[in-house]
Each structure stands twice: as structure tokens, then as C-alpha cells.
Amino acid sequence: MKRFREQVAEKGFLLSALASSSITLAILVFMVFMGMPLMREGGFFPLLLKSWNPYQGSYGIYPMIVGTGVISLLSLLFAFPLSLGTSFLVATIAPKTVSRVLRRVIEMMTGIPTVIYGFVGIFLLVPLVRELFQRGAGMCVLTASLVLGIMITPTMTLFFCDSFDRIPRSFLDAADALGAGRTQKLLYVMLPCARKGMLNGVILALGRAVGDTLIALMLAGNAVRVPETVLDPARTLTAHIALVIAADYESPEFRSIFTCGVVLYFFTMVVTFLVRYVSLVEDKNG
Asked: Could you give the angle at which helices 252-285 and 237-247 cross, rounded to 10 degrees?
């Protein structure tokens, strides 16, 4: 009877894995099929390098790709030092009671809806950026990146904390015995030992930043052009998909959003494989 249950469980897990893989592949096939008329007419790679100008028959998504990359990387640049400092405080410096409270607060922040971050950004950060720099409406790359960085900080912080918690206590005791200060312990013991988990956290946080829609839609300005400075408005791939779906259907503009979907799909796939590769390399070296 026990063996029978094990076989049923194995078959169930196998079917679940096959179903998940099939659905993921079907989504890719669907996006390619829906975007094929436009891709066949202009070519897939030319669409990635052209500008967006529907009135002249140009449906390239290059400005959106640049906008997505700039906003996502800038948000990661803002979030990384904040996440590192917070995780070091929670894992090492703060007393256990304070550490538990901070960890619960950070976990709660991961569940806050994205639209809440967007509203806070509109009513607090947008006026501040507008008055501080005296340029534009305040809805720009900088504003979206700051709010997006705050949004992904809890995710990175939890990954960093978990990585620090897995460091053998003997390593930290040895550093204390050698007279290492807190900064030395962080730089020479904790960061080298926790780099695998931290890198996974950075990669997954970047994936979340790229896939976010509402913050870019509400705060980036949605200008379909390549931003020259962080104070210029921009549009991301996800925001472009949302705006086109809301305004059009069965047109070349509508078909172009499937090219955006394919790009986002492949980016997600690259992030997933990169996390797996980092894990395998670390396991092999460790």
C-alpha cells in the first residue's frame, strides 16, 4: 500500500511538471502566433531596434526596451545598498527582539499591493522631484526608479537575511576571536559566504522590477522615446502592453504588444536559467 501511494505521488508530480511546462510553452507559442503577422512583415529583430511611430508605419519597441532597462537597473542600484544595510542590521547588529520585529515588518512590506506604492509616489515623490529639479511634471525615470527600488527592497532584504542566517556560527565566532569589527566581519566573512543567496536575490529582484507594470505606468510619464536623462519620461514594455490593450485591438499596434511579450518572456527565461546556473556553480565550487 505504501509503495502504491509513492507511485501515485510520483505520477502526480510528473503530471504537474509536464502540465506546467506545457502551459509555459503554450504561452510562448500563443504570443509568437499572435505577433507573427507583424513579425513576418517587419522581422522580429528589426522591431527591437526601430522607434515607435504608428502614423509612419513604424511599430518598433526599442524606446520601451531602453526605458525598461534604465528604470529596472536604476531601481536595483537604489535598492541594493538599502537592502544590504537593512539585512546586516537585522541579521547582526540589532537585538533579537528588534530583529524579529523588523523582519516581520519587511515581510509585511512584500505583501503591499504595487498600486499603493504608486499612489504614495504620485502624492509624495512626484511633487518633490518636480520642485527640487524644476523640470517637467515630476513623472520621470528617476521617480519611477526610486519607488520601484523601494518596492523590490523587501524582497532583496529577505534573501540577504536568509543568506546571512545560513552562515556557520563558527565562522562568525572565529572573526570575533580575531578581533574583527562589524564592518570587517561583513566584508570578509559574511559577504563571501552569502554571495550565492545574495546574487539569487538580486537577480530575482531585477526580474520583479522588469515585470512590474503599475509603478512604471503611474510614475514614469509614458513618453514613447528614449530617455536622455533620468529626469526625462519613459515607457516600459509592461506599461506599453497595458496602454495599447486599453486603447486598441486587432491592429498593428495591438500586434506589437506580443513582441513585447516575447521579449519579457525570454528575459524571464534568462533570469531563471541564470539563477539555476549560479546555484550549480556555487554548489560545484562549494
From this structure: 150
pLDDT at residue 4 is higher than 70: no
Q: Which residues contact 247 (CB under 8 A, 6 or more apart)?
A: none
Q: Residue 246: what pLDDT?
A: 56
Q: What is the pLDDT of residues 11-38, one digit of tens each?
A: 788 888 888 888 888 887 877 777 777 6
pLDDT at site 1:
64
**Residues near 139 by beta carbon (within 8 Å), at least 6 away in sequence:** 126, 219, 220, 221, 233
